[in-house]
């Protein structure tokens, strides 16, 4: 039979190991992932019967803008803006040096979902009146910043803005039609403070020479849209929405409605010049967590059970003595 001293030492040894085992199972990093893509197949402007308009293409402006802000890197890529006249604007893809290899320029598909290193990218191209374009923001964080700080984060913005000036005849109603395929995903693990957010926004507006807004359309998926100064005739799903995940709730939040056609018609416009402005954006933000929100692992529970059983044996030994 084991001596009382042997059982006592065993109990003390097992009990001392419990905090170490729990601590080892308590600290970990997870992998916040976020993806936002807002891709269009081109915008068409049509005057309804009885109305007239002329597009002044030499005044069209296309602007793309990509930016990254991150606590993981001392010199993150700066905002890049490129405007190439009245045909197309294509900002160079910005990315985090040392991350996973990004896809080719103007590839808006998911590329970093399975990345094993910190990876962030933003990309955009704008040719809305001659074939479409789009933007993407995507990022995955798999480790904390140097020094173990809990403030590790990444934020990306990618935007397109297209403006074309048109001259309309009195009483003209303009119809704006465009096709869009959006995509959002936000994923986190069960770490305190871990966060991922993905958002897209799209709108069309018409302003007069004085800068007053006479028409605006922001698809919201209600069938009638968020419209002032006109009517939406096709609004199948929202293009202004956010998906988020915090500490694994939900573990994976996805928005993928497919291709949709959006159409809106203005009220009758007075004769004059107007600016038609199309705005689109994709934005993500992520923050990494440090402390796991879990119960002890099975091995830790087994050690705890063995310790309690050993203490029970010691108590019975003392009572028997």
Segments where pLDDT lies below 50 for 5+ residues?
1-29
Q: Could you describe the largest sheet, including whether it forms a barrel?
A: 8 strands, antiparallel
Tell me what portion of residues adopts beta-strand conformation: over 45%
Number of domains: 2
Question: What is this structure, in a nutshell?
Answer:
The protein is mainly beta.
Please explain how this structure is put together.
- This protein has 321 residues and is mainly beta.
- It has 2 domains: 4-24 and 296-320; 28-287, no CATH class.
- 14% of the residues lie in helices and 47% in strands.
- The strands form 2 sheets. Strands 1, 4, 5, 6, 8, 12, 14 and 15 form an 8-stranded antiparallel sheet that branches.
- A hairpin with a 6-residue loop joins strand 5 (119-126) and strand 6 (133-140).
- Helix 1 packs antiparallel against helix 2 (298-320).
- The longest helix is centred in the N-terminal third of the chain and has 23 residues, at 4-26.
- It is elongated.
- The model is unreliable at 1-29 (pLDDT under 50).
Features:
mainly beta, eight-stranded antiparallel β-sheet, disordered N terminus
List the helices and strands and how they pair.
Elements: H1 4-26, E1 33-47, E2 53-70, E3 80-82, E4 89-95, E5 119-126, E6 133-140, E7 153-168, E8 174-187, E9 195-208, E10 213-218, E11 226-228, E12 230-234, E13 241-246, E14 252-255, E15 260-266, E16 272-287, H2 298-320
């Amino acid at each position: 039979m084991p001596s009382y001293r042997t059982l006592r030492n065993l109990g003390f040894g097992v009990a001392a190991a419990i905090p170490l085992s729990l601590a080892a199972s308590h600290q970990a990093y997870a992998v916040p992932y976020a993806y936002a893509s807002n891709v269009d197949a081109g915008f068409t402007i049509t005057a309804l019967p009885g109305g007239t308009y002329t597009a002044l293409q030499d005044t069209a402006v296309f602007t793309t803008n990509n930016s990254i802000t991150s606590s993981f890197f001392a010199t993150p890529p700066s905002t890049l803006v490129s405007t190439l006249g009245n045909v197309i604007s294509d900002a160079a893809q910005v990315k985090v040096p040392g991350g996973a290899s990004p896809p080719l320029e103007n590839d808006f598909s998911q590329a970093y979902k399975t990345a094993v290193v910190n990876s962030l990218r933003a990309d955009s191209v704008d040719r809305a009146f001659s074939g479409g374009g789009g933007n993407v923001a995507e990022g995955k964080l798999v480790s904390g910043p140097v020094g173990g700080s809990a403030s590790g984060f990444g934020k990306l913005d990618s935007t397109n803005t297209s403006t074309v000036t048109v001259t309309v005849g009195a009483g003209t109603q303009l119809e704006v039609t465009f096709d869009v395929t959006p995509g959002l995903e936000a994923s986190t693990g069960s770490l305190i403070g871990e966060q991922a957010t993905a958002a897209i926004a799209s709108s069309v507006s018409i302003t007069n020479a004085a800068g007053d807004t006479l028409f605006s359309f922001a698809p919201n998926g209600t069938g009638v849209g968020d419209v002032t100064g006109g009517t939406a005739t096709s609004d199948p799903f929202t293009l202004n929405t956010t998906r988020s995940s915090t500490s694994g709730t939900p573990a994976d939040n996805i928005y993928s409605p497919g291709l949709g056609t959006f159409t809106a018609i203005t009220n009758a416009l007075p004769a004059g010049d107007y600016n038609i402005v199309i705005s689109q954006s994709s934005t993500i933000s992520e923050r990494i967590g440090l402390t796991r929100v879990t119960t002890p692992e099975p091995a830790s529970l087994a050690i705890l059970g063995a310790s309690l059983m050993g203490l029970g044996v010691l108590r019975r030994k003392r009572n028997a003595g």
